[in-house]
Amino acid sequence: MAFNSYNKWCYGWGLRVVRRVVIISKIFKLCRQIVGSKQDKGTIEAKSQPQIIPRSEHNISRKQFSPNAIKVLYRLKDGGYDAYLVGGCIRDILLGIEPKDFDVVTNATPEEVKRLFRNCRLIGRRFRLAHIVFGREVIEVATMRGHHLSTGEGDPTSKASDQGQLLRDNVYGTIEEDAQRRDFSINALYYSINDFGVRDFAGGIEAIKARRIELIGDPETRYREDPVRMLRAVRFATKLDMEIAPATLAPITELAPLLGNIPPARLFEETLKLFLSGKAEANFLMLRELGLFKELFPSLEEILSQDNSEFERRFIQQMFANTDARINGNKKVTPAFIYAALLWFPLRNRAALLQQQGIAEYDAFMQAISQVLSENAQRVAVPKRFTLGARDIWHIQQRLDRRSGQRAYRLSLQPKFKASYDFLLLRVESGEADQKTLAEWWTEYLKQDVTGQKDMVKNLGQKDRPKRRHRNKPKRKPKQDT
Ligand code: ATP
Ligand code: MG
Question: Which of 56, 73, 250, 315 gets the highest tally of CB atoms within 10 A of its CB?
Fold first, then answer.
């Protein structure tokens, strides 16, 4: 009996152990699967303990910082807050590039920052920030972001759309949480004025060495939170001459349509950064390849994707190549020219369509301009100061071949004449052969002095002369005797 009960007890104990082992091994397997799948997907996690690179082991010296950024760091520190230089400026200095701007992150709230600086203005609703203004330089101070626990309707700090897009991102947190909320590992590097060390939360230093753009966290979730990160991935890849990591690259084409949920004013800012980066041609090619360009300029992409659009593709690519050459040669570039070029073919197609519908040439052109500009504003809101310039460039294209009398001279005095002449050259350069003689004529005209210019106009063929208009003289009313 005793033996029997002992046996039973042993058997029961053994069963419990086996069951526990099975459960533990199942949990272990599950964990391995989760971690494994993250590794397979190449997910990068921001750690709670950063790797600290001490002053002696990095090449960042305070001389490379803007003195204003240093002032901001010390003022925050003296006010009792933590403050770090973060993001692009640290990344760029490590890569030997001069930073474009200096971003500061602190544990002071925007209101607390405002109390410390007289020259501070608070901006943004979706993402509240403090701008400290020093003449033309602005130091952007962000408060460390935390996780979104609530997505409730009435929550003033956090709000997400049904597609996972963060419509409000004002939950504040610790530096560890802030690092997780940053976009790419190379941008989650923090420089402290306390010890002059760099804190690396997500393997950013390693990624810089490997020249790899990788999102922190699950790529699809991070793109859904903010689809603009897809455009940023492209911009950093070309600017820094890096590769987008496979897991970061993979979801882009499928998620590209999410850009349709971004306010057009923000997309304008982002396209401008892409086009004025000195890498516009490379950005254009990569944006097209990944299906992002279509979401920004759908009517142009429709034209470019046709088989017989060799000329149009060359025109746009050449325009970006010229823009890069000007930027890299420190010459001025007007965004009006870029947007005029991007909408030129949709405009011409629309004008032709309206003419087919029986509208007179000039009216069709005018209507097409309004339609194309307002359709584009639904996607990319180009400010009026640039659309006005684009209109001028388009109008002048129509008038460049009317040169007789005072016309050439008057046209050459128009504020957008030089841009319009460059636009004509671009058309010829990309293969518009029938404009070649006209472009050569203008090139010569611009080289001549006043007498030479007058001679050129005189020598224009008969067909270029203005047609005499025969006006009927108004009949005078006979004077009436009073
Ligand atoms: P650059 O100034 O050269 O364009 P940057 O990396 O400094 O590059 P900013 O737009 O100035 O880019 O942003 C500063 C930092 O803020 C980034 O480095 C990144 O850490 C964070 N950040 C900016 N935009 C986002 C975003 N959409 N999602 C997550 N983090 C972002
Ligand atoms: Mg920056």
Answer: 73
Q: Verify whether ligand 1 is closer than 6 Å to residue 101 (CB atom).
A: yes
> Using an 8 Å Cβ cutoff, are 113 and 142 in contact?
no
Question: Ligand 1 in contact with 390 (CB < 6 A)?
Answer: no
Structure tokens at 39: 């590794």
Q: Is 126 in the pocket of ligand 1 (CB under 6 A)?
A: no
Contacts with 198 (C-beta within 8 Å, 6 or more apart), sequence order: 52, 53, 58, 60, 90, 189, 190, 191, 205
Residue closest by Cα to atom 26 of ligand 1:
183
Question: Are residues 341 and 214 part of one domain?
Answer: no
Q: d(Cα 146, Cα 269) in Å, to the nearest integer?
A: 26
Phi, psi of 472 (to 5 degrees): -75, 125
Domain that holds residue 374: 318-464
Q: Which of 166, 186, 220 is the last residue of a domain?
A: 220
Q: Which two tokens stand for residue 109?
A: 């709230």
191, 340: one domain: no
**244: helix, strand or coil:** strand
Element (H, E) at 247: helix 246-249
Residue type, 126: R
Amino acid found at 199: R
Q: Is 239 in the pocket of ligand 1 (CB under 6 A)?
A: no
Residue-level pLDDT at 1: 42
The number of folded domains in the chain is 2
| Ligand 1 binding pocket mutation candidate from 103, 138, 190 (most atoms within 8 A of CB) | 103
Termini Cα distance of the chain:
151
Structural domain ending residue among the three candidates 159, 190, 220: 220
Report yes or no on 252 lying in a domain.
no
Strand ranges across the sheet with 189-192: 51-53, 198-200, 189-192, 83-86, 103-106, 137-143, 129-134, 120-123
* Number of the ligand 1 atom closest to the C-alpha atom of 92: 3
Q: Domain of 364: which CATH number? A: 1.10.3090.10
The pLDDT, as a whole number, for residue 480 is: 54
Asked if the structure places residue 1 within a domain, the reply is: no
Q: CB neighbours of 266 closer than 8 A, spacing ≥ 6?
A: 228
CATH code of the domain in which 95 resides = 3.30.460.10
Q: Are residues 72 and 211 in the same domain?
A: yes
Task: Give yes or no for residue 228 CB within 6 A of ligand 1.
Answer: yes
Parts of the chain with a pLDDT under 50:
1-3, 28-29, 31-40, 466, 481-482
The single-letter DSSP state of residue 468 is P
- Residue 76, in any domain of the structure: yes
**Which atom number of ligand 1 is nearest to the Cα of residue 91?**
6
The residues that are catalytic are 101, 103, 183
Smallest Cα–Cα separation from 60: which of 92, 94, 37?
94
- Report if residue 150 sits inside a domain: yes
| Number of the ligand closest to the Cα of 166 | 1
Tell me, yes or no, whether 55 and 190 share the same domain: yes
Give the span between the Cα atoms of 141 and 183, in whole angstroms: 17
